[in-house]
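Researcher: Good morning. I'm working through a list of sequences from a screen, and I'd like to move beyond sequence-only analysis. For each chain I'm collecting a predicted structure so we can compare shapes side by side. This is the next one on the list. No need for commentary yet; just the structure.
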Amino acid sequence: MSHRKFEHPRHGSLGFLPRKRASRHRGKAKSFPKDDSTKPCRLTAFLGYKAGMTHIVREVEKPGSKLHKKETCEAVTIIETPPMVVVGVVGYLKTPGGLRSLSTVWAQHLSEEVKRRFYKNWCKSKKKAFTKYSKKYESGDGKKDIQAQLEKLKKYCTVIRVLAHTQPI
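Model: Good morning. Structure tokens for this chain:
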């Protein structure tokens, strides 16, 4: 079996190793850019799904390159970004061990699609998720409690993140 690399070259790119099933179907924002307090508040991540690939013909703007001002064909990825809805807010405190969650405030009305994510088996469940929490908004004491939580988030938290979900189309 000498000179095997010429007769039987390897199959597949080493860039795709290890070959295994993906850990999650949905993508996840694993890291966020450094927060700059001089700039106004903004969302730093957005959920997108890979929908496929295609190619484009574009003009290269790279002075010094052989392809400068010439058209070239390149592969592109199509990412589908469905509209998102904010369903809650989480406040984090900076601790020596990293970020620690202070509290979470949920929206009053959550769609059925969001509630489905909190159940292992939606069909067999009684669909009671967030029913008691949404009643807080109806009572005066509950509203005051939620407002107090939001004020506490504004006062003490160093990082505030929103909980969002995509809208099915």
